[in-house]
Structure formats: C-alpha cells, structure tokens
UniProtKB/TrEMBL annotation, chain A:
Gene Ontology cellular-component terms listed: mitochondrial small ribosomal subunit
Domain of life: Eukaryota
GO biological process: mitochondrial translation
Annotated region (Disordered), positions in chain: 300-336
InterPro entries hit by this protein: Ribosomal_mS45
Protein's recorded name: Eukaryotic mitochondrial regulator protein-domain-containing protein
MF terms (GO), sorted A to Z: structural constituent of ribosome
Natural source organism: Aspergillus homomorphus (strain CBS 101889)
Automatic annotation (TrEMBL), chain B:
Source lineage: Eukaryota, Fungi, Dikarya, Ascomycota, Pezizomycotina
Keywords (A to Z) from UniProt: Mitochondrion, Ribonucleoprotein, Ribosomal protein, RNA-binding, rRNA-binding
GO annotation terms (biological process): ribosomal small subunit biogenesis
Biased composition (Basic and acidic residues): 97-106, 190-213, 223-245, 313-326
Pfam families, per the entry: S4
CDD domains assigned to the protein according to its UniProt record, in alphabetical order: S4
Organism of origin: Aspergillus homomorphus (strain CBS 101889)
Protein name as annotated: Small ribosomal subunit protein uS4m
Family from the record: Belongs to the universal ribosomal protein uS4 family.
Length: 336, 472
C-alpha cells in the first residue's frame, strides 16, 4: 500500500488550486476534461456521477445583493443568474447567517473555505450577462417525473385531433378527453391557460376517481416546471421578438411583477389562515407565548374510525404506543 | 493509524471516509465479474459491497425500512422548445410511418432521449437524507462516522436548534450547522510530534507564568512594573537603531517567502517564516504607540505599517492609484490563484471591483501615506506588486494564525489526500465560511446523471436494488 501511496498516490496528497484532483486521473480512458477544462468524475467505476460546480464566493454575494439590497424577486434572480430558486433562497439565508456571525465576532472557518473552493469546481461570476444563459450553473426548469407517467400507455387518438401536453396529462391520469370546444379555447390562448392554473387556486384543479381513489388530474408539463412564465416569454420572443424586442421585455417584466404579487398574496393568505386557527396568549411579565389550537374531529384528523393519529389528545379506546418498545422518538421536523 | 476494524486491506471495503487507506482501496476496486455465480450470489455480493459504503453505520433492519423502490428523477426542460411546440408535433403521425429518423442529438429533447436515467444508482438515496451523511457530504467531517460523532457530541444544530440524533432525516429547506472549530479540526492536517511537544511546552510555560505572576503579585507589584518599563524601553531602543529601509526590505523578503507556494517547502520551515514575519510586524507596529492598531481592521494596520516604514509607491499619479491597483489585483487574481483571491476578497474586500468601499479606504490610506509632507524624502519606493505581496501576507497571517492551543496544525492547511474526495452534491447548498448548509431537496436522477455520490457503478447498484426489492 505504501508503495502505491508513494508512487501514484502521491499525486493526491496535495491539490493544485483551481483543479480537481480525482482518482480517475490515473485512468487514461477517464482522464478527459469537460468543456470547462475540469476533470469531473471522482469515482473511476461510477461514470454516472460527476462532481458539479458550486457557487463561487462572488456569485453568492451577487445573489445576496440582488435579492436583499436591490429587492429583486427570487424568481427573477433565479432566471437572470441561472440558479435554482431554492438555491437562491438558501444562499440568502446562509449569507444572512454569515453576516450575523461576523457581527457577533464569532470565528469563521476562512482558510478551510478557501481550500474547499480551490479543490472543487466553481461557477464564477460572469461579466457578460449572456453567459448565464449559455453556460448556467444548473438547469432551472427541471420537471419532476410524476408517478402517473411511469407506465407506458397506448392511447389511440384520431388524426384530426391535436394531441398536446394538456391531453397527455389527462390521458396519464385516466381523465376523459376534453370537449372539442374547451380544447380549442385552451389551444387558442396557451399562456393564459397555464397562467390560470399556476396562479389560481390549487383546489380548483379538476379531479378524477371516487372516494379514496380521488386524485387531481395530472397537469401539463408547462404548469409543473418551476418557471412557467419563461415559456410565455419565449412564445413572445418567437412571435414578435425580432420586430419588437422592447415590447417582449416589457411584457416579461410585467409578468414577473405579477408573479411576485401573486406569490405575496398567497403567502399572506396562508399566514392569515394560520393565525385564524392558532390562539396566542402571552401572560404579562412572561417570556413565553402560549399557542392553542382547537382540537378538530374530522375525517382528516381522527379518521373514519376515530383512531387517526393526527388528532391531539387521548381518545377512549385508542392506546398511546409512546412507551412501547421500538417507537422512534427522533424528531421528524425542526421548526425555524 | 488505520482503524483495522473498519478499513481492511485484505478484503477491501470502501467507506465514506477521506483516509489514505480508503483511497488505496478505492484505487484497487475493479468492476465485478460474476462469471458462474448464481443470481442470488450476485445480489448478495453487490448489496454487501454497496452497504459497506452507504450507511455502514445504519443497522440493516433500519435501512430496509428506509428503502423505497420508487426513485426520484427529473427531466431538464427547455422553455424555448416548449414554446415552439405544444407537444402535438411529437404525438402526430405516430405509427403511420412519420416517425423521425434517429439522428445526432441537436435539441435538448433528443439529447435527453439519447441518455438513460440511471435509476438504480438512486437505490441508497434515502440514506442521503440522514443528518450524519449530509454533514459528510457537505465536507464538514472527514468520515460519516466522524460526522455522527459531531452530532452525538452536540456540535450540530438544525435550523438553529441543537440536534443530537444522527438519524434525523433532513427535510427540504432544513439548515444544519457544525461548529467551525470542529470542522477545522476534522478537515485540517493533524499536529505532528514536534507540534504536539510545542503545545505541551507552551501550556506548561503558560501555567508556570501564571503561577509566577500570582507569586510576584503577592510579593511586590511596584518593582515588577519598573522592570517591565525598562525592558520595553530597551526593546524599543534596539528597534529604532534599524533604519526603516532595512526593516522594510527584510519584511518584504519575509512576506515573499511566505507567499511563494511551493510544495517542497516543509511545513515546519514555512511556519518558522510566518512566525518571524508576525514578530517583525508586531515589533514595527508596537512603535506606533497606539495599541488599537493591532486590534482594529487590517486596512488600518496596513496603512500604519506603511507610514511607519515610510514606504512609498513607485507610481506618482495619486488619483489613478485606486484604479491601477484594482486592475492589477484582478490580473493577479486570474493569473495566480483565482479561488484563493475570491475567498480572500470576501471579507477583506480588497479585491472586489471598484464599488467596494474598503478598497477606496485602502487607497486613501495609501494616498495619505505617500503625500504626507512630514515624511522623509528618501523613503524606499515600492511597486504595486510589492505592496500587494505585503498585504496578502498580512491577510494570511490574520485569517490563518499560528495558535498552539488549537487541536490541529496551525496555520491551518487541508489534510492530506482530501482533494481526491472533494465534491459537493447539488442537493446541498453549502457555505463553508460558517460551516452551514441547506438541504435543498431530495437527491434526484436525471438523464445520464445521478446525484447520489457512490464509488460503484450500475453493475453493482442494479443487483443491490434487486436484493432490496425482496423478491429473492
């Protein structure tokens, strides 16, 4: 072993800043670099795993700047910089925490962070905004594969019919085909159709099946990707992007603002709903706030037979298995 | 020392660990060729090989309960292509001979179709939700076992609250944080024998000094004070005999030595240099009389140093200085070591483009230092580069000090063989400065790629998956 470590293995002892230093370096077949000149396969046997770039320090600060200082929407920043929305939100949280720790004078692990950024590929802060489109950090429009789409189905359609993604969703969930006039209405204004789904009330979505088997009809892929508004923008670009680029841009920003507004409203409504159900009491001179929620006896909580685990309190004939052997006490969530 | 119980050399097992023994084992594994073995044997061999790596600290029964045959995957979509076509062109003409000929993948859709989704590579994805595994994946610990220890010992918080269960399953959006000191210990090079001895000596000295001090205080405090002032005066006198120019050249030479990053320089030697530099800087700064300089920010410290040494820039035009400096910095940053510069710029902010306020502050300090009429005319001239070297050496000294009380070798450096394991999966967003990370979402597979880091390929994962399907 030490023979190997002193000969071939000595390459891995120290790293060269800005380069990855993986085992696949030793294999002449795998020693190929990607478009950015980086060796990306850490494991010689596993060719379907690659070490993907992380956000560089500059890009991270830029995201924070845009969201917090410039008050841009998370959705807009995500599109501009080619970073997933969840990642944008996480970056803001982390930088906020970092600033707080700096203020408190806590020690940071700066040499460690520097070393990691030397070893791992990073996405730099590009000067040219077009680079974010051509070479983004990650794909921002990932469509999660739905369970209903797993089986292959044979679905005959007449040749006169335009079978589009909305119809495909219905076919996968076993819903009856749309009426011709509805289908035509939807096809006439596709952007508006999708906008109505994504910004509307989710409870309004059509359902199929009865009783326990009742489920929502699978939405078209246009509505299930994180940035449906980009499709609308691209449609505008295709139709009149060459003649009126200004108009396309105005429409895009207008839509972004509108999306932000809808998100805001949704959040507020959820907050109000939460406040309605919780009764808060803070006694005088107390550090604590007591929160009460009414016990609800319904199909969702106690269930049909009254033995559901969701409802609070002791119910006659429903034993608590709390102290029994094998009950897992690990918390399942930590509230912020 | 190798842990013989977990890291066998006779029967190599790959572990979630950064040790060199593990690296050696990893370099030896070959794709399995099962030959005449029965299907049962293939599955058994594969699942035991994979389980040695994936959640080796989790009991088999527990893992079996976690296993799920449904695997998450996503398909990258292109909004442009979805805008061009509502899907009807894909469905039109199927079965009537109108299918397109398979050609070179020119569109994203065709590209996706040409690559398979490595579903069975997601077999052990549920384990990636565990807190200890996530800490190891975020590179906060050198092995999953160590990550587990950090959790159990109470060094980890989830969403700001201490969490002592390594088996806690992270939910999307959870933020976990490990104490930075622990992370530095886990990922830093260990102390060698000499350093350990020095630590012991320093500790003893400190204890002795404390005792002596107490004794002296009891005896007489007045005499002590006298002695001290005498000693200081002596020291100052000794320093002032040196000319500023000589001091400056010596300092610069030291700084350059520190900054030259060659692998063959022994760590001990580098440390000696660093210590010398530190001493020199402290000695010079002590002449200024104001003790605040030592504690306040680096820019002030640097400005003070330059004024004290009567240093001066080679270039004359003072108003364009800030710009020049910026330009040079960025050049250097790109040429030499981009990532280091980037991270250094983060809190020192000397490198950021012109909008950074501290850069102007620094430039202002330079300007004051150079244009001060009280200064001597024969002050030594420094080029921008030399200034830069000096500044960087100071930064490094501040960020990465020598401190014998730390449990790792100081100045901190990454442990050996760490780079071979350095990777951060996409489902985590990590901030290494504060050793905190957010679990963004569950790992997914996408056409051609998986997000679960594993040393084994599909040849191992597929039989392992079949094993856990419980249809043996």
């Amino acid at each position: 072993m030490f023979k190997w470590l002193n000969a071939q293995g000595s390459e891995f002892k120290h790293h060269t800043p800005g380069e990855t230093n993986y085992l696949s370096k030793l294999d002449p077949k795998l020693n190929e670099k990607n478009a950015n000149g980086i060796l990306e396969k850490p494991f010689p046997l596993n060719l379907s795993f690659r070490s993907e770039p992380i956000l560089s320090e500059d890009l991270r600060n830029e995201i924070y700047n845009r969201v917090v200082r410039m008050q841009r929407s998370v959705r807009g920043v995500s599109v501009e910089l080619g970073v997933d929305m969840r990642r944008v939100a996480a970056v803001v949280r982390l930088v906020e925490l970092e600033n707080k720790m700096k203020e408190q004078g806590k020690s940071l692990a700066i040499p460690y962070a520097r070393a990691i950024h030397e070893m791992v590929p990073t996405t730099p802060l590009y000067d040219d905004a077009r680079e974010y489109r051509s070479n983004p950090h990650e794909n921002i429009n990932d469509l999660p594969v739905h369970r209903l789409t797993d089986p292959q189905i044979f679905y005959p359609v007449s040749e006169s019919r335009q079978f589009n993604r909305i119809d495909a969703g219905r076919a996968f969930s076993g819903a009856p085909a749309l009426l011709h006039r509805d289908a035509a209405r939807m096809a006439a204004e596709p952007d508006e159709t999708i906008r109505r789904i994504t910004q509307g009330d989710f409870r309004q979505i059509e359902t199929v099946g009865k009783g326990e088997d009742e489920q929502q009809v699978l939405l078209p892929a246009d509505a299930r990707i994180p940035h449906p508004h980009l499709i609308a923008n691209d449609r505008n670009r295709i139709s009149h992007g060459m003649t009126e680029p200004g108009l396309v841009r105005t429409k895009y920003y207008k839509r972004l603002d509108q999306e932000m507004e809808v998100d805001q409203k949704r959040k507020e409504r959820a907050q109000q709903r939460r406040e309605r159900t919780i009764h808060k009491v803070q006694p005088e001179n107390s550090r604590f706030e007591f929160r009460f929620r009414d016990a609800v006896v319904s199909a969702q909580t106690t269930g049909a037979n009254g033995r559901g685990s969701q409802a609070p309190g002791h119910r006659y004939g429903v034993p608590s298995y709390d102290r029994k052997k094998g009950q897992v006490k690990i918390p399942t969530r930590v509230k912020v | 020392m190798r842990n013989r119980a977990t890291t066998s050399l006779n029967k190599p097992k790959i572990r979630q660990s950064w040790s060199k023994y593990n690296l050696y084992n990893l370099s030896r594994i070959r794709p399995p060729h099962f030959g005449q073995r029965t299907f049962f044997q293939q599955k058994w061999a594969s699942k035991s090989m994979a389980r040695d790596y994936h959640g080796e600290q989790v009991p088999e029964k527990k893992w079996q309960r976690m296993f799920s045959p449904r695997m998450r995957s996503v398909v990258p979509m292109s909004s442009f292509e979805m805008a061009k076509d509502d899907g009807s062109s894909q469905s039109a003409g199927r079965g009537s001979g109108l299918d397109k000929k398979p050609g070179a993948p020119d569109t994203l859709e065709k590209f996706i179709r040409s690559r398979r989704v490595p579903y069975t590579q997601m077999t052990f994805a549920p384990l990636e939700r565990r807190l200890d595994t996530a800490i190891f994946r975020a590179m906060f610990a050198s092995s999953a076992r160590q990550a587990r220890q950090f959790v159990v010992h109470g060094a980890v918080t989830v969403n700001g609250k201490p969490m002592r269960y390594p088996g806690y399953l992270l939910n999307p959006g959870d933020m976990f944080q490990v104490e930075p000191e622990r992370v530095m210990y886990a990922t830093g090079a260990p102390k060698d024998r000499n350093e350990r001895r020095q630590t012991r000596a320093a500790r003893k000295e400190k204890a002795a000094a404390k005792e002596a001090e107490e004794a002296a205080e009891e005896a007489a405090s007045t005499e002590e004070a006298k002695d001290e002032t005498k000693g200081e005066a002596k020291e100052e006198a000794a320093v002032e005999t040196e000319s500023p120019r000589e001091t400056l050249t010596a300092l610069l030479a030291q700084a350059k030595n520190i900054m030259s990053r060659s692998k063959d320089v022994l760590p001990a030697k580098r440390k000696q240099e660093l210590r010398g530099f530190q001493k020199a800087v402290r000695r010079i700064l002590s002449r200024s009389g104001s003790s605040t300089v030592l504690t306040t920010n680096l820019e002030e410290q640097f400005a003070e140093l330059t004024t004290l040494l009567k240093a001066k820039r080679a270039e004359k035009p003072s108003d364009s200085k800030a710009k020049e400096e910026n330009g040079e910095n960025s050049e250097e940053a790109t040429a030499e070591k981009p990532s280091t510069e980037n991270s250094a710029s983060e809190d020192v902010a000397g490198k950021a483009p012109e909008n950074s306020p501290i850069t102007t502050q620094l430039a202002e300090a330079f300007r004051q230092a150079t244009q001060n009429p009280e200064q001597d005319v024969d002050a030594s001239e420094l080029t921008d580069h030399e200034f830069e070297v000096l500044r960087r050496a100071l930064i490094q000294m501040r960020d990465n000090p020598i401190d014998s009380t730390k449990p790792y070798a100081t100045p901190w450096r990454p442990r050996e063989y760490m780079s071979a394991f350095a990777m951060i999966p996409r489902y985590l967003e990590v901030n290494h400065n504060i050793c905190a990370a957010v679990y963004l979402r569950h790992p997914v597979a996408r056409p051609g790629w998986t997000e679960v880091p594993s040393p084994f390929g599909e040849a191992t994962h597929t039989p392992a998956f079949l094993w856990y399907l419980r249809r043996r």
